[in-house]
Write a structure and sequence with these properties.
about 475 residues; five-stranded mixed beta sheet; Cytochrome Bc1 Complex, Chain A, domain 1; about 40% helix
Length: about 475
């Protein structure tokens, strides 16, 4: 585990070598005036480079009036800067065969590009031009407002997505984590251009952002490209003097009231009613949609990002619902023919998480599907998984980890999350050792803890009803 220096802890110009791989990979970190953090991982065999600018603001940082502002702002930064029009921003990366995109999470926003190694300075310049010098005109806000409203409507047409959003609203009730990242038609419709610009000025400052890159690169070249782009921005882009620390507790953001949320599942019972346990639901929501199937999601509070039990829960997730050899697939699909789509999930953020199962089925089979899902969860909670299931789960987690991290984009995302959210970078070999060390007893203990707490049911589909308790 590599502990990263806190924001403001390192002096500009200082470069730290954090890790050296036997194959020649190197992870380095430095700070460029006036406070921009630069974290890179060299992948010697790669000719591509993925570079991102990560800003530690997401939907959890918004009050109710500004719900969706971070995602709205993400859109607006593509609309033009003092040096480039919207067309020139996209054309610059298109001209070198690259990719330019962005995404917003509950905890941070990331703008990224993927190019061949020789075009890295261009990618850094385009990204930091967007970050430092966005115009955010009234006209752009109004036109992009309509685009975001269309995006919300598109998401509302995805019943599986709606079911998962509804589950999050129940699990994280009372906190900003319960809100959709994209906002609502009411909140997006009400945000004024001046409020969007204030959100931009508050968060998009040199001492808040981090530039992360992975692939065929030299750290000093990345730092030099960042310095040049910052110089091009001019003196108007200045530090705020109040950079966000990592792990800011929920409830200490702005003027938000204190929020009680579990940081581990062991605290869940102390922060909300535990409900009837495996056999019932602490809360249930059914949403009507004119679809052929009912989408069913059963979930519960899970683990925070750095919880020591994350490896055991990862193995549980893989063995329970990942692939055709998982516990759920043969039981729900092969033996009973209840659903074509079935699986499990484990989601973690810096301070909270969720765990659950899902299925899509015909309305006439919805009650039976819920009953079988509950039966499987009850059996796992009571009896755990077999040694063979745990072994397969370990292998699936290890294989997907390594195969995923062969891509420069995945490594860049790992660097970004570590720099702005967790403050620690977990090396691949450490993660592999964590999965290899998981025992059947570890998985059983994690399953019993997760599945004994409050559980929630979300259904979306035609004639959706709240099924009876199992």
């Amino acid at each position: 585990m590599i502990e990263l220096p806190a924001p403001g802890e390192c002096a500009p110009g200082e470069t730290l070598t954090l890790a050296v791989d036997p194959d020649g990979g190197v992870i380095r970190r430095s700070v460029v005036e006036p406070g921009v953090r630069v974290l890179t991982e060299a992948m010697p065999a790669s000719r591509s480079v993925s570079v991102g600018v990560v800003v530690p603001v997401g939907s959890r940082d918004e009050d109710e009036r500004l719900a969706g502002a971070s995602h709205f702002l993400e859109h607006l930064l593509f609309k033009g800067t003092r040096r480039r029009t919207a067309l020139q921003i996209s054309a610059a990366i298109d001209a070198v065969g690259g990719e330019l995109n962005a995404f917003t999470t509950k905890e941070y926003t990331c703008f990224y590009a993927r190019v061949i190694d020789r075009d890295l300075p261009l990618a850094v310049d385009v990204l930091l031009d967007m970050i430092t010098s966005a115009l955010i005109t009234d006209a752009d806000v109004e036109s992009e407002r309509e685009v975001v409203l269309e995006e919300i409507a598109m998401h509302d047409d995805d019943p599986a997505g709606v079911a998962h959003e509804s589950l999050a609203e129940m699990i994280y009730a009372g906190s900003t984590l319960a809100r959709p990242i994209i906002g609502t038609p009411a909140s997006i419709g009400a945000i004024a251009p001046a409020e969007v610009r204030a959100h931009y000025r508050r968060w998009y400052t040199p001492d808040n952002i981090a530039v992360v890159a992975a692939g065929g690169l030299e750290h000093d070249a990345v730092a030099s490209a960042v310095a040049a782009a910052v110089a091009a921005a001019g003196a108007q882009w200045a530090p705020s003097g109040s950079a966000r620390a990592r792990f800011i507790p929920l409830g200490e953001l702005g003027t938000r009231r204190p929020i009680a949320l579990p940081t581990t599942v062991g605290l869940a019972a102390g922060t909300r009613a535990s409900g009837p346990g495996v056999g019932g639901f602490a809360d249930r929501r059914a949403r009507q949609r004119d679809t052929e199937q009912v989408n069913i999601v059963i979930g519960m509070p899970g683990l925070a990002q750095m919880d020591s039990r994350r490896y055991a829960v990862g193995v549980l997730d893989a063995a329970l619902g990942a692939g055709m050899s998982s516990r759920l697939f043969p039981e729900v699909w092969e033996r009973r023919g209840l659903a074509y789509s079935v699986g499990s999930f484990a989601s973690r953020s810096s301070q909270a998480g969720s765990f659950g199962v899902y299925a899509g089925t015909m309305p006439a089979k919805a009650d039976a599907t819920v009953e079988v899902l509950l039966d499987v969860l009850a059996d796992v909670a009571a009896n755990g998984l077999s040694d063979d299931e745990v072994a397969r789960g370990r292998g699936q987690e290890a294989g997907s980890l390594v195969l995923g991290l062969e891509k420069s984009g995945a490594r860049m995302m790992e660097l970004g999350g570590a720099e702005v959210a967790t403050g620690v970078l977990i090396e691949t070999e450490e993660s592999l050792a964590g999965f290899d060390a998981v025992t059947a007893e570890d998985v059983s203990e994690a399953a019993a803890t997760l599945l004994a707490g409050p559980r929630f049911l979300s259904t979306v589909g035609p004639d959706a009803e709240e099924p009876a308790d199992g």
